[in-house]
Amino acid sequence: MPDNLFARVLAVSDLGRDFLRPIDGPALRYREAFAISARLAHALVRHGAKPGDRVAVQVEKSPTALLLYLACLRAGLVYLPLNTGYTPAELAYFALDSEPCLFVCSDKNREKIAACLAGMVFLTLSDDGRDGSLIRQAADAPEVFADAETGMGDLASILYTSGTTGRSKGAMLTHGNLTSNAMSLRQAWEFSQNDVLLHALPIFHIHGLFVATNVSLLSGASMLFLPKFEPDAVFQALPQASVMMGVPTFYTRLLKDERLDKDRTRHMRLFISGSAPLLAETHNQWQARTGHAILERYGMTETNMNTSNPYHGDRIPGSVGLPLPGVEIRIADGDGRPVPQGEIGMIEVRGPNVFKGYWKMPEKTAAEFRPDGFFVTGDLGTIGANGYLSIVGRGKDLIITGGLNVYPREIESLLDELPGVEESAVVGLPHDDFGEGVTAFLVLKPGARLTQESVLESLSDRLARFKLPKRVFFVDQLPRNSMGKVQKSALRQEYAGLYQA
Ligand code: AMP
What's the gap in Å between 377 CA and the centre of ligand 1? Predict the structure, then answer.
């Protein structure tokens, strides 16, 4: 018997239970999900798709879009989801690099994409997943499919990392990577088939696709499938849910809604956050309003999930918790040598969750792995005496000013504590004299009145002079990507010339 992610899903699922409950349509049981994914798999294979071939997919979130992922797993195809925000020119890069055998896109984008990709075979899927050439071609296909003999070492997916500078890299994830991680999370978060996950995340990213979906599939759980995050829909779905997963922005937006209270959340088992740092203030406010301590976890495209705050035990605000079962974490210096406990260094990860490498980039892959198999994440962190990991910033976020290192997170947490500050981002900008100049961007709470002088005055006795921002800007909002991550590179770009003659 082949052992792969879909084989494991089949082994645990109860065909009569709900898999997906969309807000605008009937529930889809596991039995129906498997039947539809079989039809979709036939449609792909009829086009000549063979195990190992890539299938590029840029479609809106819908039940069919998710079942297309299952279809690829079943046929041994490598699922390559693409952010719906990518332009045709960006898509052309991904397609030329990954050489998919098929490209699934929405009807409305087909022509624009096809203009950049001569010779590509296209299938279409409408935004609600009910129409398009993929649906038409799958309609008469059988409801059973002879699943490919894929093994745990075979590729299940390629996800392009959201690198905003340089070329995007395709992270190759195997069935083994995805399966082992979902099993660890199922155990760590005590998922069962009684769980109903409120799913409002996009499905082109590891968070919504792998963390949320694979954990649910491997627990035989159900998902309340929202097309996108929208507070009205969340409050409508919440009474039926037992767990919610979100990016920090979900939580800050729900906190702004007066409907959020203990009564509406009492029945919930768990709230989980990840993909970007959750402010300690958000964690504390959520706990005060709902009585629930948000469980924060940490991962990345290349590694799946690495650490999590405990299900039982202290969920510490500002920390991303302990290594997941089977995952090793170390904090190392620039040469991969572990630093003394409590010191800041590069977070390195080893385990069955860690990806196979970057697609067609063996040198880049080799450069990011240590000889003993640890992957260099690019995140800076520190492990406390209690074993909990805290993230201090991205390696590339590190500011070096006048030869001295400044960790943006340290300044941001002081800024976030100032009365009147909603949130902050600190970046280093090219500086003629110092190399980089520390620069702060603040979003203020309504009615707050702060000036650059008052902010610097408040920090002056808490931070060494070299860490003090040289300039403080007040902005309406911070630039964010679709996962809620603050795009510091956008700030760096916009203000690049500030300290240069
Ligand atoms: P992505 O590959 O898009 O998921 O981005 C991964 C990056 O997001 C990590 O390398 C971290 O920099 C960041 N990240 C993910 N989860 C957290 C978290 N809980 N706290 C802080 N940063 C996080």
Answer: 10
Give me the phi and psi of 407, to 5 degrees please. Answer: -95, 115
Q: What is the structure's pLDDT at 426? A: 95
Q: How many Å from the N-terminal Cα to the C-terminal Cα in the chain?
A: 68
Can you give the CATH number for the domain in which 447 is found?
3.30.300.30
Query: Do 366 and 480 reside in the same domain of the chain?
Result: no
C-alpha span between 203 and 210 (Å, rounded): 8
User: Which residue, 200, 227, 246, sits at the end of a domain?
Assistant: 246
Question: For residue 409, what pLDDT is reported?
Answer: 85
Nearest atom in ligand 1 to 207's CA? 4
**Protein residue with least CA distance to atom 1, ligand 1:** 300
In 3D space, the residue among 106, 47, 41, 85 whose CA is nearest the CA of residue 67 turns out to be: 41
**396 CB within 6 A, ligand 1:** no
Record the pTM.
Answer: 0.88
Helix (H) or strand (E) holding 88: helix 88-98
Q: Which of the residues in the chain have pLDDT under 70?
A: 162-167, 396, 403
Supply the pLDDT for residue 334: 85
- Residue 98 Cβ inside 6 Å of ligand 1? The answer reads no
Q: What is the CATH number of the domain that holds 298?
A: 2.30.38.10
pLDDT the model gives residue 163: 46
Q: Is the beta carbon of 319 within 6 A of some atom in ligand 1?
A: no
**Cα 274 to ligand 1 centroid, rounded to whole Å:** 7
Domain that holds residue 309: 280-394
Can you give the CATH number for the domain in which 216 is found? 3.40.50.12780
